[in-house]
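ENTRY TYPE: paired fold submission
RECORD: A
CONTENT: sequence, then structure tokens
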Amino acid sequence: MDSTSRRKFIKLCMTSVPALILAEQAKAGGTEGNPPVSSAYRTPNSLQRYIDPLPIPKRLAPYAQHKDETLFHVRMLEFKQQLHSQLPPTRLWGYEGHYPGPTIEAFRGRAIEVQWENHLPSQHIFSIDPHIHGAMPPTPAVRVVPHLHGSRTASESDGLPEKWFATGQMAHYRYPNDQVAATLWYHDHALGITRLNVYAGLSGFFLLRDNTEAALNLPSGDYEIPLLLQDRTLDDLGQLVYSPTHEDGLKLPQGTWGPEFFGDLPVVNGAIYPYLEVEPRPYRLRILNGANSRFFNVFFNLAKGPTDIPSLVPFHQIGTDGGLLPRAVALNGVLLGPAERADLIVDFSGLSGKSVTLSNNAAAPYPGWEMANMHHERLYELMQFHVTRPLSGKTQVFDMATQSFFEKLHEADSVATRDFVLAEQLDDQGHSLGVRINGKDYDEAVTELVKLGSVEKWRFINTTDDAHPMHLHLVQFQILQRQGFNPTTFRNGSLELVGSPRPPAANEAGWKDTAIVNPRDVLTIIVRFDGFAGRYVFHCHMLEHEDNDMMRPYEVIA
């Protein structure tokens, strides 16, 4: 056998190994901890698309009513769940044994209390890097702390990263819900392992409603669909693989922190390439980017293939992170960094019998600064909408042009301007050691003291090559502008702004709790620190970044 034939033979043998493993497990009745594997199972890279229905997270039922407050009980559990009908069940962590967790619904002005209980095993699903701050021994491997993202909540119920609790322990949090209706979400926030806990499955929707939203008569019930967008990598037995990389695509040893993670497969509401049957009518889609590092630039596409010329279905965005926009915005696509949300109205009227693909063209890493040599694949398709259901009854009549009164914050009311420099530390090979805010680690002393009720401008100055979604706990803010700066003069100690200031796009001109800072840009936001005095944090919501100290505390003082 010549060398060319030998190489082909070895390659054929290697590609046959997964199938042989699956076949042997099926004969033997499965491996320890895994169920018998059906002959119908496939490897993750050979799955059929759009054969499984989209799961809709169940609404969490309260367990008690005490005076004027509703009480909920939420357990964090390990379980197995099929992410695709052609895969074996995957080992996951989730709230109440579901991935994603059940949706919590609340009403403005009606406080709720949640008892969070850690029933997870003492061994983590993934290897932990013990060199990361917060994960160093003797810290237990398994620890959690839930954070209600976007909520105006007292510090003791905020889910601060260092307030974790271990297996067998619990925490009791109170959420006042004293803010406008919005698409919020809850997820784990444990110091040093947020990226691992969220990747294991610990996330879910929290929908806050109010009378203003109800008066708009928006699509509701079966016509209001939450969509949690994430990405995952699975091995040939359908189990989660967490394999971070450097920016140049170099994979890291197991149990080592890396600056980014990009999964091979799109997961929507806990399902890989699902479909949803819809009626030819308007739907309200609440989209959340819950990925670790991946940005999604989503659009609705009638084209049959991802490389075909797009045939776009236009839509309207009516809300963002913190609630409804001042007015609906007509769009063909919307960019979402990790943790950002978009409240959309998509009208499938006139599309009977057609399939609409929720598509994505965002580069990984975003914004794709090395386009000529991409190290991570784009996930071009996420799910499909099949317009195959008959129209049931009359469609709702709602007015997107005239929405609720919107309170705009004014720059003249700001009492202070704070600058935060985002800078990456590199080793001698040019690989990231982490990104810091103003050169400080998370556990250094608090430097930002803000007065309760005051208005401030915060400027994020991005000296790195990546876009960063910056998130503030406690508050919702408004974007004032973005503007470039001269990196040469900045290295010499002077911030020289260049180009014209760019106001926020119309679909960003609302309440936000997370906003993207582009490379070599300055993002200026205006914030009113309402709600509570106490300690909070702000950080990049790329989970790999926040876990390695791209996070700082701040304190609101009365």
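RECORD: B
CONTENT: sequence, then structure tokens
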Amino acid sequence: MSLFDKAGIDRLAAGLKAAGAIVVSTGGTARALAAQGLAVEDVAAITGFPEVLDGRVKTLHPAIFAGVLARADQPADLAVLAEHGIERFDAVIVNLYGFEGVIARPDCTPAEAIELIDVGGPSLVRAAAKNHAFTAVVTEPGQYEIFLAALGRGGTTLAERRLFAARAFEHTAHYDAVIARWMAAHAGLTARVAAPIDDAAGEPPLPARVTLDLERRLALRYGENPHQAAAMLVPAGTHAGLAGLKQLHGKELSYNNLLDLDAAVRLAGLLQDPAAVVVKHTNPCGAAGAARAAEALATAMAADPTSAFGSIVAVNRTFDRACAEVLLAPGLFVEVIAAPAFEQAAVDLLTTKPTWKANVRLVEVPAGDPWTSTAGLELRGVAGAILAQRPDDACDDPATWQVVTRAAPAAELVPALDFAFTVVRRLTSNAIAVCHGTSLVGAGIGQTSRVDSVRIALEKAGARARGGVLASDAFFPFPDSIDLIAQAGIAAIVQPGGSKRDPEVIAAADAAGIAMTFTARRHFRH
């Protein structure tokens, strides 16, 4: 036995004593067991060698590992044990140094972290798990009751030992993954690849290897469709972003709810002022910024009321009673509301209204960098592989943008252009956002032709397009979109530029008297 986490050691000691077990243990664990009245034999008495190097070497000895790894059905193995006077171990009860907890401390030094990289513990666990046909391995306090119950009836079964072994290998795999991620960052290896190539933004290249240890955080009823099994898996220990969501009310979240939540929360997080985002099928159908979250929410819901019914809503401020009152207006209903925090009065109001209380889900999504546990990468599955990229989460700087038309945007339109170009990056490409002030009034999404996206966005906006602004997530390949934009009365355009026909597009904007700004940065979202 060697226990860093001594939770439950009292009941473990009592059970072992009742079973008449002979226990061999190391220093701190031996003392803790002795304090519970359990007789313990010190490891040094077995190995004939004291602990050395400040406890770095205790159990790494043939007298221990041969006793753990010997196969009870192999006469040759038993003969070796007999020849060297080694006893065979029936069980190994070990949990590992608390490396993950220590590195989570802001004041943790590299020297402290390195001292808590366990060597003997994982070796014992892996040895016992390998020899699970004959040796039980227990790695966490939650397994003590199962183990002690087995002892009470005469010993563990092979089926139980297999389950213990599976958990043990998961335990050491997670432990090694955490150490590998920390060590890569400590050694500066997260930016090393076989042939380093810096990208245009000057960022370091992507890591050559990313080790993920995923745990099931949410069991989902089904996936995108009822015939698909699904769950939400998160890197173990991660509690930022959706991995750390706390559901305050409502029935369980679905796979599609989580996809929509991701889209809503990530756009709300990009908006600096109090803001609200309304999402349907992963695309914003409403978004607005205002002096107060409730005002922003009312404007966002009004952008496309038909699409907003049954949508996902996110605000980037505390969801207060005024926000709740906005949603309780007749004819409105949303599936999920997400916010960094909820005012209790808002929760009480929403969860007591008959139309809402049984259906609406309230979800707190904590702040923090959700990409730390994935080496700073956004991961996306494709058939048989995972695509990785740096997240497109950095805010744009309008000060770097270039006005390319003869006319510059009016000063009052500059905030609207910034807002529109922020919103368009969260629409599915080809994407067009039409905004009036800091409110989305029309979106064109997912079309194979950009001019079709322009047409859809302007139709959605209707009369609200006049005097407003339009943002495109990528360049206009032809000037035909400018003709439609001019007819709708748009006052200014913001787009990345970069087309070989940029001069023609600029000329069309000049002819229509529309100011146009190039950002030199594209924001495709496929």
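NOTES ON RECORD B: The longest strand covers residues 214-220. The longest helix spans residues 158-187.
STATUS: closed
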